[in-house]
Design goal:
Blueprint lengths: L1 E8 L3 H12 L4 E5 L5 H6 L1 H17 L16 H26 L2 E4 L2 E5 L2 E4 L2 E10 L3 E3 L12 E2 L1 H4 L9 E5 L3 H12 L3 E5 L11 H13 L3 E3 L2 E9 L2 E8 L5 E6 L1 E4 L3 E3 L32 E3 L10 H15 L12 E3 L4 E6 L2 H6 L4 E7 L4 H6 L5 E7 L5 E8 L2 H13 L4 H6 L9 H10 L10
C-alpha cells in the first residue's frame, strides 16, 4: 500500500491549492480526481462562464461604438467558434494545474475515492494510506421538483454553457443568484428573450437591497424580465415550447410562461454522501455539509474538509483560501480561516459586495453612516460608456471603521479587492478617503464614496 503524508480527494480550486501548498511545505501528497483536474470551477463553472460573459460584453459594447465614431461591420455570432475558444481557455488552465502538480511533486491518481478508514482511501481495487486526508469534492447543482435536468430543455449551469446548437429564442432562469443572473446576461446579449424568476422578494437575496435594486433596474433596462416573489411549480412541453407555470409566493396568483430553454439555478448540494464518511465516524449535517473548525479539521483529527463540502458561501476563492489553511495546519503551521469573503456577480454592470449590508448592520443594532457615489459622476466610467450603478460604503458611526462595501458598476469585480483589504485590516472610512487614487480611474469612486460618508465628496452634492 502506498503511503503519503496527505491525500487530497478532489482537485477543484480548493483541492489543488491544498495539494500544491502542502507539497511546497515538504509533504508527500497524492491528489485523487474522478473527473477533470480543476473541478467544476475550471471546467464547467467559473472559467467557461466568464469566457462566454467576455464574448457577450464585447458584443454588447460594440452596439454603442457608433456613438464615438467607430463604425463596425455587421456583427455575426459564430457559436461553434465561440465554443472552441471557451474550451481552449479551459484546457489551458487545467493543463496548467497538472503542470504545477508535476513541478511540485504532487502525484495525481484518476478514479473515484472513498474513505475506508480515518487514514485509508480506496480507489477501485487500490488502497492508499496517509497521515491526513483532505476532502475537497465540491458540490453539484440542486434539483427543483417538477424540473428534472435533461441538459437539453431543462439545464443546469453545465448544460447552459453549451450554445453550439443555437441560442434559444426564449430563455428562463429559475433563481436570481449569481448563476441565474450571469446566464441571463449571456443569453440576453446573444439575442434571447430572457426572464428571471426568483422566490424571494429581491434578486441576490440577502445582499444590500438598494444595490441589488440598482442591478435589477439595469438588467431590466437591457430587456431582462425579472419576476421576484414568484415560484416555478412545473412545466408542460407543447408544440410551441415549454409551458411553465409560475405562482406568486404571496397570494398564489398563477400565470403561464412559454419558453424554449429553462435553467434551474436554485443552489448547489455538497458532494458528501458517497465519500464513506461513516468509516471515519464523521456525520454531515442535515444538508450534507461537513462541520469543521477554523483549521478546516473535521470531527476526526486526521481528516479535513474544505470548500463547498463545508458551508456557504459556495465560492471558489473561499475554497482556495480554505485549502491553503488546511495544508498549512496539516504541515504544523499556525493557520486558521477567519477572513472576509467577497462576492461577485459578473453581469452588465457587475455586482460585488463584502461585509455587512445596510440592513444587516441595522439589524445588529449598529449605528452607521452611509456614503455613496454614482458612476454617472466618474470620468473613467463616462469614457467607457458604463455609468450604471454606484459604490456604497457602510461604516460605524462612532469608530469610523468600515463595515461593508457594495458596488454595482463597471470594474466592480476588481475594485472589491481593495474593499476586502480595507475590511481585513480594520480600516477606517477616512483611510480610504485619504488614500490618493489615480485619475481617471473607476476606483476613484471608492475614495469619493468614503468621502461622502463624511459629506466631503467633491464630484457630487453631499446629502
Amino acid at each position: 500500500m502506498e503511503t503519503y503524508d496527505l491525500i487530497v480527494i478532489g482537485t477543484g480550486p480548493g483541492g489543488y491549492h491544498a495539494a500544491i501548498r502542502a507539497a511546497q511545505l515538504g509533504l508527500k501528497v497524492l491528489a485523487i480526481e474522478k473527473a477533470e483536474v480543476g473541478g467544476v470551477c475550471l471546467n464547467v463553472g467559473c472559467i467557461p462562464t466568464k469566457a462566454l460573459l467576455h464574448a457577450a460584453q464585447v458584443l454588447k459594447e460594440s452596439e454603442g461604438a457608433s456613438a464615438f465614431g467607430l463604425v463596425l461591420e455587421k456583427k455575426a455570432l459564430d457559436l461553434e467558434k465561440l465554443g472552441a475558444w471557451r474550451d481552449a481557455v479551459v484546457k489551458k488552465l487545467t493543463g496548467g494545474v497538472e503542470f504545477l502538480f508535476k513541478s511540485t511533486g504532487v502525484k495525481l491518481k484518476r478514479g473515484t475515492a472513498k474513505l475506508v478508514g480515518p487514514n485509508e482511501v480506496a480507489v477501485g481495487d487500490s488502497r492508499f494510506s496517509a497521515k491526513h486526508i483532505l476532502l475537497a469534492t465540491g458540490s453539484r447543482p440542486a434539483e427543483l421538483p417538477g424540473f428534472p435536468f435533461d441538459e437539453q430543455r431543462v439545464v443546469s449551469s453545465t448544460g447552459a454553457l453549451k450554445l453550439e446548437n443555437g441560442v434559444p429564442k426564449r430563455f428562463l432562469a429559475i433563481g436570481a443568484g449569481a448563476i441565474g443572473l450571469e446566464f441571463a446576461a449571456i443569453y440576453r446579449a446573444f439575442g434571447a428573450e430572457v426572464t428571471v424568476v426568483e422566490f424571494m422578494d429581491q434578486i441576490l437575496p440577502e445582499s444590500d437591497s438598494e444595490v441589488a435594486g440598482m442591478l435589477a433596474r439595469a438588467l431590466k433596462k437591457q430587456g431582462v424580465k425579472i419576476k421576484t416573489g414568484t415560484k416555478a411549480t412545473g412545466f408542460e412541453e407543447k408544440k410551441d415550447g415549454l409551458h411553465v407555470t409560475l405562482e406568486a409566493v404571496s397570494g398564489g396568483k398563477t400565470e403561464t410562461l412559454v419558453v424554449d430553454k429553462i435553467l434551474v439555478a436554485v443552489g448547489r448540494k455538497p458532494n458528501s454522501e458517497s465519500l464513506g464518511l461513516s468509516a471515519a465516524g464523521i456525520q454531515p449535517d442535515e444538508k450534507g455539509f461537513i462541520p469543521v473548525n477554523d483549521r478546516m479539521q473535521t470531527s476526526h483529527p486526521s481528516i479535513y474538509a474544505i470548500g463547498d463540502l463545508t458551508k456557504p458561501p459556495l465560492l471558489a476563492h473561499k475554497a482556495m483560501r480554505e485549502g491553503i489553511v488546511a495544508a498549512e495546519a496539516i504541515a504544523g503551521h499556525k493557520a486558521a480561516f477567519d477572513q472576509m469573503i467577497p462576492a461577485v456577480v459578473y453581469t452588465f454592470p457587475e455586482f460585488a459586495s463584502v461585509g455587512l449590508s445596510e440592513e444587516a448592520a441595522r439589524a445588529q443594532g449598529i449605528e452607521i453612516k452611509v456614503g455613496k457615489f454614482p458612476f454617472t459622476a466618474n470620468g473613467r466610467a463616462l469614457t467607457l460608456q458604463e455609468t450604471s450603478g454606484m459604490v456604497k460604503i457602510i461604516s460605524d458611526a462612532e469608530s469610523d471603521v468600515v463595515l461593508g462595501i457594495h458596488i454595482v458598476g463597471p470594474g466592480a469585480s476588481e475594485m472589491i479587492s481593495e474593499a476586502t483589504l480595507a475590511l481585513e485590516m480594520g480600516a477606517l472610512t477616512t483611510d480610504i478617503e485619504l488614500s490618493i487614487h489615480p485619475h481617471p480611474t473607476l476606483s476613484e469612486s471608492l475614495m469619493e464614496a468614503a468621502a461622502n460618508v463624511h459629506k466631503a465628496a467633491i464630484h457630487i452634492v453631499n446629502k
